[in-house]
Amino acid sequence: MSYFCLLKVLTSAQHEPGYCSFYEDCGLNPAVEGALIPPRVPCKDYRKAVNVTGDHYELFKSVCPMFAHGEGNTLACCSIRQLTALQSSLTLSKAVLIRCPSCADNFAHIHCATTCSPNQSQILKITKTANITQPTGIVKEAVVGYEAYISTNFSDASFRSCKNVRIPATGGYAIATMCGRYGSTLCTPQRWLDFQGDSSNGLAPLDINFKLLSDGQTAGLPPGAVLFADKALNCNETTPTGGEACSCQDCEQSCPAVPQPPPLPKPFMIGRLDGVLVISITIFSCIFFLIMCYVIEHKISPKDVTCSDKASLATQEFLGSLFQTWGTIMARYPLIVLPVCLVVVLVFAVGIKDIELTTDPVQLWSAPESRAMREKAFHDAHFDPFYRTNQLILTAPDQPSHYYDSLLFGEQNFSGIISKDLIIELLELQQKIQAIEFWSDDLNRTASLKDVCYAPLNPDNPSLTDCAVNSLPQYFQNSIDNLNAKANMTELGVTKEVDWRDHFIYCVNSPLSFKDITALGMSCMADYGGPVFPFLAVGGYENEGYITAEALILTFSLNNYARTDVKFKVAEEWERRFLKIVQEYQKNPNTNFTFAYMAERSLEDEINRTTAEDIPIFMISYAVIFLYIAVALGEYSSCKRILVDSKFLVGLGGILVVGCSVIASMGFYAWIGFPSSLIILQVVPFLVLAVGADNIFIFVLEYQRDMRRPGETREEHIGRVLGNVAPSMLLCSLSECVCFFLGALSTMPAVKSFALYAALAVFMDFILQMTAFVALLSLDARRQDANRCEIACCVTVETPRPSEPNQGILLPLMKKYYAPALLNPVSRMVVFLAMFFACVFLLFHVKVGLNQELAMPSDSYMLDYFEYLYKYFEVGVPTYFITTKGFNFTSEEGINAVCSSVGCDQFSFTQKIRYATEYPERSYMAIPASSWVDDYIDWLNPGSKCCRIYTAGPNKDEFCPANETGLFTCAKKCMSIPENGVLRPSVEDFNRFLPDFLSNRPDLQCPKGGLGAYDKAVVRDKETGEIIASRFMAYHTPLVNSQEFTGALEKARELAHNITLTMRNVTGTPQDFEVFPYTVTYVYYEQYLTIVNEGLFNIAVCLIPTFVVCCILLGMDLRSGFLNLLTIVMITVDTVGVMTLWGIDFNAVALINLVTAVGISVEFVSHLTRSFALSIRPTKVERAKEATANMGSAVFAGVAMTNLPGIVVLAFAKAQLIQIFFFRLNLVITLLGLVHGLVFLPVLLSFLGMYSCLNMDYSDDNFHTPPGFHSKYLKLCSEDEWSFYGFGMTWG
């Protein structure tokens, strides 16, 4: 009490113009503890205002120019010491406000008025004083609290000028740091000024009660007092000292008229109906009408026998003879053929030892020369890669909410998860994770978090506390003592206890504060020195209601390293142990949290895990297919001959042929160094099995149905059968080979590699079928002819082989029931219309993309993480706008084209990004870009303490940081005050001080320091100092599916392109200069910008060779080729339509399956088309029936029934990708291929198929076949007509 008398209330205040209420500095306020700056207070001194002159005037003019009226004519109520203290206080605010001169001027105006106004006694009333002993021993009465009377016109205008001023480093508002507990959203003029006058915030030296009254209002004013009602500047006005108007970034009134984006295109409608649907119905109705008009059976004359017909027969004659000879030779020497084939396969297979499996999704789905990959390469070459994220999102759904009656904030409803017990539990988990240690062979020492963590403010030699860990406990510096801290506090005469809840409320609304306004006096900064933004600490809230959050977020950020870096393995091992701790914690029954988690390695781990776990599923699938083939190929004429007539070994041989073809393909490409992938291992065997099994069935069933001719040897019989069916097998295999080889023109690496592997595998499969399988069938035929059992070869059966060929079950059913029912005059019209109409509408509604959770197995913990992420996270991924080499940032024109503060272009780089954030639903941009250029200019501004120069000592003329406390050692500012208030450094100064800015650690004295925020954002040439790359970070809105990620990429590129064109207009900027957006997700989602065109191209290049090969091998039969092509197109289009119904998105995996669909469709279609073309029935309907019965049964047994059992097994796979894109999509492809091949195509051929008849009198003894034709191709069509068709296809 000898030093001060606290809370002395003045009852005899005097309020007269020209008088001061206090004057001169009286020392430190004894009532303020834990102040961030010295709380110097004035002495109570009712006296006349002082005429300031000399140095006093010069200092006064620099601090409070609005009250300076010339030396000798200026009265003031502040001494030099007061002005110095005021200048230090205003310097802190100017660091964030100086980018808007009128705001900084208005803010200074308020405090200059209460501190220095010559009419000070009229505009305030002293409310509290304290006795302070001076160094001389004299006790003086100091003012520690007063009431200031401010006009609402002035306060409101001042607040409006400052409320939109940005902090470029965070993208937030400066007002959020100056409004305490209310943040920027709830800040008002009264709350803004209340914070300035609250000594508990660590910045205000004394308590000021700002009373805001309307002009003319006298109630509440003491006698003689008046409102301070000077004119405040609008933010779009220049200052009296020459400062220019604030920029649009900081002042809405300065914004130009920015046109709104055009409205989104409306859905294509005709009337009230979907336009596509209406057009589809119209077109299909017209086509159906034309088809009906065409359906008139007619006969042709001999003159209609064209060169095409002759070429067709000649082609069949040539191919049939060739394959017949070949088959006879292969069947005659099986014991030579089989070893030779094995040797060839082994030669190819040896290459598998060098096979390289690509597992990186980036390398799989993004072309090396794609734009996204080029941009990623540029980013990674110049900047550190994105840090590795390890995160938990925790909820406590069973915890009840509770109310808290806060002294400062009133009654607050805290959600159940915002409780001290849970925060402490989270802190214990966090500390356990932070304490992870392990021996590292790569480092040859014990490794811990500090070895790999992201430490933005101490990147060179971080300690554990330097690591960036974002969590709610960081508001308490990870201290349980701080969490348990309590203190009594008096506010407006009410005394209550304040605790962690008051501190939490304050910090989430003012995360950049170094000291809260409670009696606790704790900082909001994390222990590593940076702020913790609330959207990174809590989630699941609305409208910034952080205390109602439903989730806590704990994030550990690690540096990302190249896979060749030794620390990459260290980071992965740390993450492995992180996952182990988290998983053990989750299993602990005492855990109070329900949570989801992930590590950076989780995606790759889970994909690899499910791949390994699903291998047995694929093995079972192939086993089921093998079992079916082995059983279905048998003849089974009687129970006694089951073991004789079975084809178990033939089926096994067919499977081995498929396996060998796949192995040979993989070995060949491994030889030449072409990488493979897991999708190749999963899809290619399935595809080749479908193709190979079909050919096996056609060959074996034809052999079983065909009777051996008299005098014909077994080998000749096999050769003749091969001559009948091999052209059809060649047609399909060659079509597929060419299809897949052309598919390798795709720019997607996964699609390209799949196409190459599939093409060679199909080719090898055909070669091995024409050699090894023919030899194997020959050996089996010998055994069967000798009546020996298949498994026990030495055992013979007495029961003879039936004399009639075995037609099996399917062939009679299809002949007797299916084909006639399908092709009767009524049903074929209905089926044709239904199948044709089903091809269209849904095609236009398929979604494009692949949600990342689908890459996870169905039991993956990552699925819970994605669910929590989309539900609770309130901000999207960060994205960088990156500049390439060539732009001159050092010139005034260059600076203005980039920055967004005062004096900058209205449509500058950063300003355009800010405009985009005004339409987040269209631009997907949520937070404007942080700008190192803007903060660098503010850092250089002499109005702040950031950039100073040593004037003495060993570091003379070098940069002096703001935390240097020497009074005269850093008296010189880096820059002088510009006349117009727009600071633009010279080229020399720009280059001189930029390294100092980038290495300057931000603190209270200089929050604009670039270390942490920008030290990695600017890349300079080491020799010339030229800026060769820089980046500006913004944030996307929360993105929850691939469509939104793709849309965000597209809009970001549009914005970057617009910025690029503007910046190229700056003098000296080359035309190859570019601004591009980059974030880690772009490289995955870029494919969806072009996937539709890519898909159309790939499918087109598969369809064209199918048509060409079909026409050539059918002897230039264009009509058959066209009908074949049409049906395959129908299958493909229908597949895409069904994808819409079944929720299968169109993406690269789907595209691979669609390319596969074309290949499988060839099997369903081409055999039947050729069978129809070579049929010798008299009418098209009869020929369609015959082709459906004979070849349709083989296709059904060989393709559909081979695929379906294996596909059904895939439904039990854990991987969602397999369930959706292999089970669902392959099931759709198989069923649609079956329906089109056995329903649509026969109907189509019965309408539009070709036939040729020759009107000739064959009873004439002098009858001769037409030139170029052999009589075996002629058969009676009707009473007086002959038709000619291809080689030897006499079905039934």
UniProtKB/TrEMBL annotation:
It comes from Cyprinus carpio (Common carp). It holds the Pfam family NPC1_MLD. GO terms for biological process: cholesterol homeostasis; cholesterol metabolic process; cholesterol transport; intestinal cholesterol absorption. The chain crosses the membrane at residues 275-296, 333-352, 615-636, 648-672, 678-701, 721-748, 754-779, 821-844, 1095-1115, 1122-1142, 1148-1168, 1189-1213, 1225-1248. Belongs to the patched family. This is SSD domain-containing protein. GO terms for cellular component: endomembrane system; plasma membrane. It is found in: Endomembrane system. It comes from the Eukaryota. Residues 614-779 form the SSD domain. It is a multi-pass membrane protein. InterPro entries: HMGCR/SNAP/NPC1-like_SSD (IPR053958), NPC1_MLD (IPR053956), NPC1_N (IPR032190), SSD (IPR000731). It catalyses: cholesterol(in) = cholesterol(out). GO terms for molecular function: cholesterol binding. Keywords: Cholesterol metabolism, Disulfide bond, Glycoprotein, Lipid metabolism, Membrane, Signal, Steroid metabolism, Sterol metabolism, Transmembrane, Transmembrane helix, Transport. The gene is LOC109100782.
